[in-house]
Amino acid sequence: MSDARPESVLGVRLNAAQRLDWLRLIRSESIGPQTFRALINKYQGAGAALEALPRLAAQRGKPIRIATLDEAQREMEALDRVGGLLVALGEPDYPATLRAIHAPPPLIAVRGDLSALRRPMVSFVGSRNASAAGLAITERLVRDLAASGFVIVSGLARGIDARAHRSSVGTGTIAVLAGGLDKVYPNEHIELAGEIVVRGALISEMPMGWEPRGRDFPRRNRLVSGLALGTVVVEAARKSGSLITARFAIEQGREVFAVPGSPLDPRAEGANDLIRQGATICARSQDILSILEPMVGRDLSAGALFRDDGSPEPTEPLWDELDHDYAASTPTTEPGHELDEPASKDLFDAPFAVAPAPAPARGDARKRIEALLGPSPVPVDDLVRAAGVGVADVRIALLEIELDGKLERHGGNLVSLTTR
Fold it and tell me: Of 32, 61, 81, 282, whose CA is between 20 and 30 Å from 419?
């Protein structure tokens, strides 16, 4: 085996048969990216590794379910139905930044413009229950960075993620999914996902048809940070998923930026903590560009992709290290923290089609506007845009909040929640 040429030498594409073997190997029970890499190193190919798996399983005393060729072909067909494809580690379209992280996914499913994966990227993460101020600064930073040639990466969640994607959908944005490429979450962002693929891309390491679970979001977060040269945190509560992404960015040797917020707003506690811990304070786009622009084009290679290093045949128990190294050592999300509605519908037959959401009722409009307010003053115009309701409804809601003694008005048509 030592004289055989390893598959996926950097810059070389897999053939169809090799791609199916790779897919079968990574979809087999208990095989994660690290184990996948160890097997490829030893056997110089996924096909040979698949042949060796039954014997390796016998050594650990427990059978391993190996993905069948039929299952791999069905996944490829499902991917084709939504206009996606599989990109393998080492192929020209595989992002160099992602290739450089610890345990990069051997295969990523991609739908959209592949050229976006070759451009410099910066990721944005933050609160799902974002304030109007947080949404406004996100839009301002994203537009400036996009104008400077950066692709924006985020996780397609509500709040900061969605605003980052929408602010860069015309220039290039990448959404990383926690479920399969055909399982957009949340449902309300299916239409946004359809807009993203025109100039950007959706990517996932999970199988087609995979419904996202709570522990899948930290796995996704490592890709959000891994794709980017730096991660910007806007409004993050303590113990939030955004801080998990920041932690991954630090472990991956990437830059972390944090937008400071009011010490009276719980949504800003995590970002403020990051600044105290050494993250770069970020109040304008130049704070980010001055650090990231010199990094564009820098070689982030983590070394040879696959090699026969003469190591003995793997005899340790095989396991999916992403369910251990990442999920077990990462703060877990509380029930309902990441998944607070039923998983999204299957998109095979109607990709990215969704009925428009009904206009919010008066009471719902007030709740939405009150959630957008915080101790930091924001323009009423920003509230109108962020709430997605009419000016008259915003004014009525603000009047009701003011009558309840919860609103403070400032000069320049600015409002905030009272801090008394």
Answer: 282
